[in-house]
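Box 3.1. Reading complex inputs
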Amino acid sequence: MSKATHEMSDRRPILILDSGVGGLTVLREVRFKLPFERLVYVIDDAGFPYGNWEEEPLKQRLVDLVGAFIERHDPKAILIACNTAFTLAGEALRSAFPDRTFVGTVPAIKPAAARTRSGLISVLATPGTVQRAYTRDLIAAHARDCHVRLVGSDQLAEMTEAHLRGDNLDDTDLLREIGGCFLEEGGRRTDIVVLACTHYPFLANRFREVAPWPVDWLDPAEAIARQLARVTQQRAEIRDASAKGESRPDRAILTSGCCAPVTERLLNGFGLAVCAD
Ligand code: DGL
């Protein structure tokens, strides 16, 4: 399809990708900003969790996976709603598919540095994200004057999925995962914790309950959706509301090919119909 045709009637979907249900925290903000867009939510559950993967195989998997979905869905934009994936493969994806529009998710270190009063910030993420050169570069570029503590958790993404399936999470287990975020130094305390995994906002209320003191839990989802709206140059408020009715419902596709009933109910609750492809 030519570019001119796209601009006249661009009913192509926006592809949103994560390893699990974490990307839904971004998808719900996208809906507010771009209510008339068609969304295809890809859950790479066959690769979940991404947090402990070796870098090269994960990068290759992401390039192959995104390439296959570009082929099948011809999306107008691709939102990588996963810090672990985008901090690793953002550059590789952009160079593999130079004619495509990508929006990524990266740890919100810059806004945290601008907002902190104590100068003590923690970044709560997967082990992969805390090891990334990308994350270190963000700190060097935007938070030189702050003390940034990187806290990698290899349990929280799975705990989030369990929580959303209805399991009870134990306070002690939660505190073990987030305790490292809380630092007291020279009469100052951590005042911001960056939620640098898209799964974690689902647990923010549980984090508040077990935290040793109140902090600002920074969730970048709204800013990511704003960026997506900017790059797709959509003005949702002036779009024809009937446009949504013409299209198929928003879809969720799982790379494993199977979806537990409890997950399907969750996805349906976010307005997504689970599809094979
Ligand atoms: N939701 C993903 C992120 O933002 C990570 C979950 C996983 O470990 O697969 O980093």
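In summary: The pocket of D-glutamic acid is lined by residues 18-20, 22, 48-51, 82-84, 126, 129, 157, 197-199 (CB under 6 Å).
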